[in-house]
Amino acid sequence: MKKKFIAIITIISLIFISCSNENEDKIIINFWAMGVEGEYVSRLVSDFEKENPNVKVNVQQIPWTAAHEKLITAFASETLPDAFQLGNTWVPEFNSLSTIQPLDSLVNSSLIINKENYFSGIWDTNVLDSTIYGIPWYVDTRVLFYRKDIIKEAGYTEGPKTWDELYEMSKAIKKLPKYSKTFPFFIPTNEWLPFILFGVQNGADLLKDNSTYGNFSGKKFTVAYSYLMKFYKEGLAPTDLQQVLNLYQAFGEGYFTFYITGPWNVTEMKNRFPKELQNDWMTAPLPSPDSTYPGKSLAGGASLVLNKYSKNKKVAWKFIEFLSRPDVQLKFYNLVSSLPAVKSVWEDSTFTSNKYMSAFYTQLNNTVPTPKIPEWEQIVSSKIQQYAEQTARGKKGISKALKELDADVNKILEKRRWMLGKE
Amino acid sequence: MKSKTKFSALLLFLGPSLGVISLFFFIPVVAAFSLSFTDFDIYSLGSWEYLRFVGLKNYIDLINDPLFWTALKNTFYFVLLGGPLSVGVSLGTAMLLNSKYIKWKGLFRLVYFLPVVTTLVAVSIVWRYIYHPRFGLLNYVLSFVGVGPFDWLGDPNLAMPAIILMAVWKNFGYNMIIFIAGLQNIPEELYEAASIEGASGWQKFKSITIPMLAPTTLFISVITMIGYFQLFAEPYIMTQGGPLNSTLSIVYYMYQEGFRWWNIGYSTALAFMLFIIILIGTLIQFKVQKIDE
Fold it and tell me: Quick one: which of A186, A315, B66, B174 could link to A256 by a disulfide (CB 3.0–4.6 Å)?
């Protein structure tokens, strides 16, 4: 009995010794990534470890829904990893916590990462006061998804290129008896995105005075807002979202013809859209308020950032460089279908042979970033949404809603004004 | 000497639990209370320089915040309609299940209790489908009677009633079990005596069941009220507070302010407002019960 016990103890301690020996001369870096990306990035890690035998990368996957809370908590308890993924609209917020590393000198001396290789609008979302804080990992933007067969029935051969065309087509579709009970343009009232999108398309400055006051009651935003509200008012867009519980089913039924959404839906459509209609949907760059096609879209996506307080910045940066290499980006696209941030990857046949992708490529060259302040997320998700829904349902007039919206936004920005005044 | 041993014994037995309660309850509550007088937010998390003491500003802002009043109104709507309904339904089913003429009592008890132990999130998702305006089960059933179709969760006037209906269905089983226990504690002799005197069923219910159940009812009403004031998961999953904020509850608003926008100062002020409201509600119920006695 005793002998057995000693033997077990010896074996266990041997295991521990061998483990610690193995790790002793290895540099360990921690990397956090969200959602599906986090799930699949570990498959790329083994390649990196093969190229750098003295490095071990620990990947932790965080669900998107808990990502923000988790990162903030990690920041408060000083347990942020060496490198992590950030939604590019979160970069200003984490910069205001002064927790992410400025990357200018690293980028300047890098052989792999170069500003010219990236879509300029997307790159720009990571630049704050002309300092770069994040490297785009994958990109995301919204384009128009539409039903080819329905617009054909309404007498059109091509998707809308201007705001006027979009409106005319919607009216023409609604006039067809078959589609009289449908809503041609699906603009969800619980999403802030379309309202901001059409605003920036029209060239509106959403905030003014160094982003310390709201400017939504300004002329250009008002025009865009009124344009969208026209769709609700004339029954061309649904005010009720419960009707569209299953997006793909509703799109398949022709319950709506136009919908502005992102790249993930290309894959989803292939899997969930009715099979017999697979040839009847298409993607196109967004229509524009004037004749300059295509119109602008928002620059979305995720960036890779370095923890300012990491002890292994050099190695972590090497890992970021690895993830930014064209061959790795392509491999990553094949794993998770997140659109590559590096432009040269788009020349691969994976993209040139996919008819839905060219709209995204065109659109990605025509993006603008949203205001880069930490409060932005709150402004759009709570306030824009609230007022847009009230106006869409006819509870509040357009100019009244926008004035109240500005007042609310000014209140949110009060702290920012105080802080800027203090400096 | 004697008192000294007593004290150390006291410390030995109470110390651990007092320690844990202080660490995880009293200290956080005091900390939260102090935070409610500051403008603690994401900037303050980055640097303490950006923390301002604002006195009662959060509370004053709250009173001037239309969304707070909307949330308060919705919460009261939910508590005042859902609470009594829930207590009534559970009392009714408890009486039915306590009746001598019912068979398979165990089975029914199990069936009625099942929603209580089912995950609220799963239940809410299923009910979202039941309430679906075009393909939902509820509208399908109603169509046989020639009513509807209603857009349960999409119509600002119907969303809250729909949530109440679901909450009552989800919760009544728990209260029902407590009521059954209460009913079984009423001595059978009382009913026998009343029957001999010629009392009707209603008279027996009014003069024996209700007074004998008073302590149970008080307990259930207080627990239900406190629970209902903390309405959160149902709107969070089913409606996200919409449509038109018609299902925005106090706790959901608090969650949004605190954990989505990191306005911790404001959201703690909201939490203490809710605490005061629940305290007042509980005191009123105790008072009412006292008068009855």
Answer: A186
Answer yes or no: do A278 and A230 share one domain.
yes
In a domain? residue B65:
yes
**What is the per-residue pLDDT across A214-273, written as a single tens digit (0 to 9) for each?**
999 999 999 999 999 999 999 999 887 656 667 888 899 899 999 999 988 888 888 888
Which of A76, A243, A390 comes nearest B244 by C-beta? A390
Q: A5 in a domain, yes or no?
A: no
A93 touches chain B (CB under 8 A): yes
Residues of B in contact with A77 (CB under 8 A): none
For B197, the domain range is 36-292
One domain, residues A236 and A87: no
pLDDT in tens, B100-109: 888 888 899 8
pLDDT at A272: 84
Give the whole-angstrom CA distance, residue A386 versus residue B242: 9
Q: Is residue A76 part of a domain?
A: yes
The answer as to whether B17 is a domain residue is no
What is the mean predicted confidence (pLDDT) over B128-145? 87
Same domain, A254 and A315: no
**pLDDT less than 70: residues of chain A:** 1-24, 241-245
pTM here is 0.78
Amino acid at A163: W
| Amino acid at site A164 | D
Q: In terms of residue numbers, what domain contains A67?
A: 25-140+299-353
> Which residues does residue B255 pair with via DSSP β-bridges, in sequence order?
none
Q: Name A140's bridge partners.
A: A300
What's the pLDDT at A13?
63
Q: Indicate yes or no: CB of A97 within 8 angstroms of CB of B39.
A: no
Looking at the domain assignment, is residue B281 inside a domain? Answer: yes
Residue B142's closest CA among B126, B119, B158, B157?
A: B158
Three-class secondary structure of residue A340 per DSSP: strand
b/e A335-363 (16+ beta carbons within 10 angstroms → b): ebbbbbbbbebbebeebeeeebbebbbbb
Pairwise CA distance, residues B213 & B180, whole Å: 10
Cis peptide before A238 (omega within 30 of 0): no
Q: Does the pLDDT value for residue B1 go beyond 80?
A: no
| Cβ–Cβ contact B40 with A under 8 A | no
One domain for residues A272 and A303: no
Residue A204 lies in a domain: yes
A164 touches chain B (CB under 8 A): no
Which residues numbered 234-253 in B keep a CB inside 8 Å of some CB on A? 240, 242-245
Considering only residues B98 and B271, tell me which one the structure prediction assigns the higher pLDDT: B271
Quote the number of domains for chain B.
1
∠ CA B48-B50-B52, nearest 5°, is 100
- Residue A219: give its domain's CATH number: 3.40.190.10
pLDDT of residue B292: 61
| Residue B147: other Cβ atoms inside 10 A | 10
**In the prediction, which pLDDT does B26 show?**
93
- Whether residues A117 and A58 fall in one domain: yes
Comparing CA positions, the residue from A30, A79, A78, A35 lying closest to residue A55 is A30
**Whether A274 contacts A132, CB under 8 Å:** no
Q: In 3D, which of B60, B1, B90 has the Cα closest to residue B269?
A: B60
| In a shared domain, residues A122 and A158 | no
Contact status of A1 with chain B (Cβ, < 8 Å): no
Rounded to a whole number, what is the distance in Å from the CA of B52 to chain A's nearest CA? Answer: 10
Q: Which CATH number is B162's domain given?
A: 1.10.3720.10
Could you tell me which residues come within 8 angstroms of residue A335 by beta carbon, excluding any fewer than 6 positions away? A40, A43, A44
Q: What is the pLDDT of residue A302?
A: 93
